[in-house]
Amino acid sequence: MSDRQQAPLKEKRRLGNWMPAQERTAAAFRRRIAAAAAAAHDARRAPLAGVVRDLADLVHGDAVLRMNLTRAIDEARAAGYDLGYASIDELMRIVDYLMTYAPPFSASAPVATPLNVVLDWPMCMPSGYAVFRDPAFNAQLRRVLDYWCGFLSGPHSRAHLNGHAPDGWFCEEAREKMGLEEFVCDPSQPHWGFESWNAFFTRRFRPGARPVAGPDDHRVIVSACEASPYDVRENVKLHDRFWIKSQPYSLREILTASQQDLAERFVGGSIFQGYLSAFNYHRWHAPVAGRIRAAYNVDGTCYSDVEAEGVDPRGLNDSQGYMTAVAARAVVVIDCDDPGIGEVACVFVGMAEVSSCTIVALPGQRVAKGDELGCFQYGGSTYCLIFRPGVIERFVPQPPYRDDVPPLRVNSHLATARG
Asked: What's the whole-number mean pLDDT along residues 197-214?
């Protein structure tokens, strides 16, 4: 029986609690959002938001894009998945509705990345791979996500920043889930003092909540994010076939072709990769002390995953290695104070609805271990640290890596460098 003839998946293994594991829950969300989008469209009788209209015009004006996206939708529905829409126009109305959507809290069936749930199946159908790699499509989709980020950065995004169960992010269950007492907030203020959804999403720890391991010991390298271990690879190559099932890391693609000299200095080195949960802290911190040698953003895909994982991959989760080479990301290179460690490349990758990777540490600036480097402004996220050959003696997290344990805390001991 071929992949397309197999029964539709009833459950996906979801790393990070960004979307519900049960397909019936995801399908119910898509139907609910589609109905709300249709009602809003009929009530307003207003045109689509400009960025969404531009996306629709791009797709309808490009015969290949239109054909591939139409076929991807048809293939997903033929495979038995309930999308909540059956055409490009219906999909665009849903995208338009989500431009003013602020996710509610849910402990049992979170939908923290709503557009990812909507696109979940078309993007991993045979015709969908080409759509979600198309440069023009991604550039316009980035404008859509930036527009949504603008809403999430404003006061109207605070609909669920309250203590009302079960949807409020400050209800008792949510506070326990997130350990909210560890973060800077003020329960006596409206919306607990947060000016927007993004201000809440990028909330800061209270002083002392995440002490820096070995602050004076250069051999102690710390975790740059509050993240669960995903993978460790040794002897990394300059160029590798990152799109195959094993998804080797490819330095030239991760750091970009314009940084060939930088990439060559890490050949034969090691990589650690971790992923962030919807409930995690989303700021990045320096894993070592030193001087910022380079800091730059890389445009890339938003929802592309790898064919090698099959017609029914487990969302973007199983494509995290591949995504370090193709997705939108920020790169910060630190020249460690310890010459035995040398340069460390920190790569922060935007998955799904990440609207921006914001760098705050600029070239020439000196950072202490644990200093802030930047943050993700909303969305599913993964990151990796790249070390030069012979630097790492041992990583603290060891395989097999489990997703049912607490994440490795930011600023905690991640690896030990050779003496």
From this structure: 95
Domain that holds residue 230: 220-417
Is there a single domain that holds both residue 129 and residue 274? no
> Does residue 186 sit within a domain?
no
Handedness of CA 13, 234, 395, 337 (dihedral sign): negative
Q: Are residues 114 and 257 in the same domain?
A: no
342 part of a folded domain:
yes
Q: Which residues pair with 228 in a beta bridge?
A: 275
Helix, strand, coil share of the chain (percent; to 5) = 35, 20, 45
Token code pair at residue 397: 């997290």
* Whether this model's pTM surpasses 0.90: no
- Residue 331 has what pLDDT? 96
- Whether 196 is covered by a domain: the verdict is no
pLDDT at 354: 56
Integer distance in angstroms from the first to the last C-alpha of the chain? Answer: 55
The domain tally of the chain equals 2
Does residue 51 sit within a domain? yes
Q: For residue 256, what are the contacts with CB-CB under 8 A and spacing of at least 6?
A: 298, 331
Q: Two tokens at 344?
A: 């460390």
Provide the pLDDT for residue 378. Answer: 74
Q: What is the largest CA-CA distance in the chain?
A: 68
We report the CATH number of the domain holding residue 238 as: 2.70.70
Alpha-carbon separation of residue 19 from 144, 168, 199 (angstroms): 20, 17, 21
The HSE-up count of residue 209 (CA atoms within 13 Å, CB side) is 15
The pLDDT value given to residue 248: 64
Residue 15 has what pLDDT?
54
Q: Are 384 and 235 found together in one domain?
A: yes
Is there a single domain that holds both residue 140 and residue 224?
Answer: no
Convert the pLDDT of each residue in 238-292 to its tens digit. 876 544 344 468 898 899 989 999 999 999 999 999 988 878 899 999 999 999 9
